[in-house]
beta-galactosidase (Hibiscus trionum), 761 residues
Amino acid sequence: MKIFNFLFSVFIFSSVIFHANAHNVTHDSRSIIIDGNHRIILSGSIHYPRSTAQMWPDLIRKAKEGGLDAVETYVFWNAHEPVRRQYDFSGNLDLVRFLKTIRDEGLYAILRIGPYACAEWNYGGFPMWLHNMPGVSFRTKNDVFMNEMKNFTSLIVDMVKRERLFASQGGHIILAQIENEYGNVMKPYGEDGKSYINWCAQMADSLDIGVPWIMCQQAGAPKPMLETCNGWYCDQYKPKDPNTPKMWTENWTGWFKSWGSADPLRTAEDLAYSVARFFQKGGTLQNYYMYHGGTNFGRTSGGPYMTTTYDYNAPLDEYGNLNQPKWGHLKQLHDVLHSIEYTLTHGDVETQKIDNSVTATIYQTNDKSSCFLSNTNTTTDATVNFGGINYFIPAWSISILPDCREEAYNTAKVYAQTWMMVKKSNKAEDEPSCLKWAWRPELIESASVQGKGDVSVNKIVDQKDMANDASDYLWYMTSVELTKDDLMLNGTVTLRVADTGHVLHAFVNGKYIGSQWAKYGNHVAYVFEKSIKLLPGKNLISLLSVTVGFKNYEAMFDLVGAGIASPVELVLKNAGNETIVKDLSSNKWAYKTGLDGISNKYFDPSKSSPKWVSDQVPINRNFTWYKTTFKAPLGNKPVVVDLLGLGKGMAWVNGHSLGRYWPSYIADKQLCKTKACDYRGRYSDKKCLSKCGEPTQRWYHVPRSFLNDGENTLVLFEEFGGNPSSVQFQTVEVGSVCVNAYQGKVVQLSCNQPPRPAYAL
Ligand code: GAL
């Protein structure tokens, strides 16, 4: 109870400070200086649209409780300006509400406006209408692009200024970001790229926000922008300008997943090591990317092929639970780092090599000193004598001695509790263990049999240009007239379609003939080939292209093709083994965006329709809609729906999109090494993978705020064919808890989030 009261008073105190007058945020080479106080900043990324507004206070409180000073977020342009000059800041897109929630919890905010984000977000955050503006060229010296970028950036800045949220106005936003990792891709843009990044700096500076602007991965960023580092490690990083503090905007706490990839694990030990090493080597600001990853609801996931979960193996899991022991181990680190803030920001620095693998770094002021002892060897533990005391420093670990005598923390000695999360079945009263389904078909006939489109053009058009990202689905339809004596009627004909690497379903004369999609690790163009039967007269060829998130990274990623590419051909092998090719690419093609069920909102329960059938619910039938009702699981634990048995499609609860589902996409068996995961040595996305051979994503988050107390409706659009009979709603809860106990150390064991109370052994 005491601890609780104490926390409560900290919360009250710190939330008040932001209502005072303007705060002065500057820096020197060692610190961020806020109202004259030299600070190190520990921060974490939480992207507001990847959770719900109802989840924000809890997530942010856990970030604060976890020892963070700040929360960072991107601003996703395509979410806020889906149609040019039509803005959406409602519900989970309420940026100001999110920022105020951070403020009210007593934390600083870092606002990464971009507006290019990357972030495994659809098209890196760019709206598709921008791509379709005449004369536009992205991320370079181009008036159309720069005008739009300035328009959106100023809109965000003005919105935030109106609410007086910048520290310079008495608010809590201490830094803002323009562009994102442009330095990584700048070269191919040549001189125009250099002009563009200079323009970004001037434009941002002209917005006069009164706090520093940052540019990540932008060595030698144009003044007055401050450069920062991103990566799994940034200890070796040095800003080009010696007056710029060493800042790390993205410490990747794990990794993202794409369909076919396995579950990432970045160990608590290694993540803590990277942070401690960064501060040992003069770091000033460190931000976890992600602190809470969350969920790519709707069609927000990037591409190609990013999953709906964006858990990231972050300190808070997808649903907002503490990911233990990571969260707890970092909390202890943050507390220790904060306790030595003064020596870190003011002390003289001295480095002493103690033996082959252990180095001591001493931060010394007139009256205090703090030390780091690092063992960078990846295999050999060390016991060293430092100042007359022996210390055991395991391989790949760092000890922090706040007074240069007593070890307060070692990155490889984990005292924080671990817990296993489990899925529990829905115990809501009267809830049948098997859901009762109704179904209806998607009306593919109008497209695949009649070939009717909204637009016709004599060429194959990229899906970005044609569908304007209004839907994943785009029909490409053409016809081929064959006279009775056409050679194509004699011999084997193959339909050959070049695809840019998303999903393709092909139909000939209304009959489904096959599908293809990219394989994990090879998300590039493929060629679909299938032998077909043609008839004399008119033959209809209908291709349904399905995008799975537009590309979000690399130089000129915005131009990477999507949908069907040229050529589309009929290939005849005649009796004499000759090959005759008929290129259909410049035929007349009719285009139709979207699906009937999506345009007519079959997923919206408020639209009652008699067309749902409860009899003979089919299984393994493609292009099928399924609907069921259920009661929400009791209590307040996070809810998931288990979609094992289904193929690929989209899911909605009470009309809210849960995102794309694809449990039939199995995580590549080759990715998981049999060897146990070793925290020692550098982490990468190839290390410590698990759950190979299992569905890439089986469970889908259903935020509590999507649910009603009474009856709830789940609608699935199944594109490939699957079996909904084992679909279940479950809660995610703490299953078992354990902790390593060492004599003289205080450990915590709790099923609460955050854990308390503390027991001394
Ligand atoms: C960075 C990028 C982030 C995110 C990250 C990987 O390059 O700035 O937005 O995409 O990679 O998760």
Notes: Confidence is low (pLDDT under 50) at residues 1-18, 757-761. The pocket of beta-D-galactopyranose is lined by residues 117-120, 180-181, 230, 250, 256 (CB under 6 Å).
